[in-house]
Fold this protein.
Amino acid sequence: MQNSKYRIRLLIVLALCFSFTRVWSAAELPAQLTDEVFWQLVTEFSEPSGRFPSDNFVSNELATQRVLSELTKSRKASGAYVGVGPEQNFTYIVALQPKIAFIVDIRRQNMIEHLMYKALIELSSDRADFLSRLFSRPRPSNVDKNSGIGALFDALSPIQADQQMFDENLRAIKDRLIKEHGFKLTSEDETTLGYIFRAFYVGGPDLGYSNVAFQPRSAGPRLLPTYEELMIDTDENGQQRSFIATEENFLTLQQFEKDNLIVPVVGNFAGSTALRSVGSYLREHNTLISAFYTSNVEQYLFMTSEDWKNFYTNVSTLPLDSNSTFIRPLINTGNGYTASPQFRPTFHWDTVLFPIADLVAAFNAGMIENYYDVIQTRN
């Protein structure tokens, strides 16, 4: 069984490599995208917004950084990054420094949130300025570019949100996106933008995954992490490496945004347009997938009999090699990983890397029937 599995895997990888050398054009990815091309990719690659049970303002996953050292080996500054969800993608992008990044999420709200981030990051002079704008709080006077990320939050957290700053910042975000970049947001998009930005205004550094009803810090840790907790978390070596952990990280991300190289797309992983369009674009520009961050979307796809099959069929069309990797956060209950996306009081996150080509090989060989089979492709 094992030998058969590895033979199938080898054949799939060789087929992918052959296809790569045979049909790709000689075009290379540009160092930056024009506003017109960026918006064209956003609109043409996107599918209609799908339904999702919650807002997802902030990642629900701690431990996203704890694969960064392993992830960047032989992958840094090469290939394309694909991800899903809000701000956790920025940390992976800063660590990997890919040629381009696509964020594919079923919610149009997530695309609008990434545009909000884009405007704020471009407008900000440094990390402290960014956090001040994001939460509509006056910039602390006792921090500078050399301040640690913990010191930034310690200084910002006691400061009250300011309604006038909120209004001014929201206006600046819209001006940046609509007037300067020329992005054609609908009136509904603008309403959604205000809704998202107000969540950060109300929640501040204690903003969580999907609500703005917050328990005080004195009540102890919550089931899901706050924005602050996500930003001050560490990698597997105990080093803080979030996208605002250092000024260097923030400036790296800011350049990606100014170059229009983080492209948010509305798309269902199981849909027929978004992922396939990303794959076609990358093939046309001679670029392999370096990393694909899935969050826990795959577990939801297994709730229907066809969605997970459609997703892995889509993945098999992406330009891959043996170094292309899935980044998967898994829910560890203490008794192993669960295939259920539900959270429990005793769970914790593990973030694990999986070779994408192994999954494609197993899927094409009929060896995937449930999410537990997916987890086994790492072995």
